[in-house]
Design brief:
The protein is an alpha/beta fold and 153 residues long. The chain is 44% helix and 16% strand. A hairpin with a 5-residue loop joins strand 4 and strand 5. It starts with a helix and ends with a helix.
Amino acid sequence: MKKYLTILAWAALVPLAGTADAVSEPEPLARWEADRSVVLDAAGVRLSDFHWIARPVVVFADSPADPQYRTQMQLLTDRIDELAERDVVVIADTDPEAQTELRTKLRPRGFMLVLIGKDGGVKFRKPLPWNVREISRSIDKIPLRQQEIRDRR
């Protein structure tokens, strides 16, 4: 009887063994949808996940200590609510060794700021930090954004 109960206990626990990994980290899109002020790490991010949903703003640097990177991230996080209104997801990539999908596709050299439209096309690349006002102006000139503004009225 004791052996039978031990086997039943093991059988009950085995299905739970693999669930910790599945629950531990939600997908980047789900994290952004839950909190639009989150800054995503580029590892595991696929641009196709945001296609027609959000406008990725990707900030590249060779190190998180890069002064331009720090300045850019401060500018973005100070006014992230304005970016959220424009469906912007902020993605940071500071590890050149990781060779993320974003690095492979966009091929940055040192610091670079990239805006990708909802259609998946690169709207601009900047070698220096930009403030949220400049980014917002560029987004607001995009025809799809103008259509979104008209539709909200």
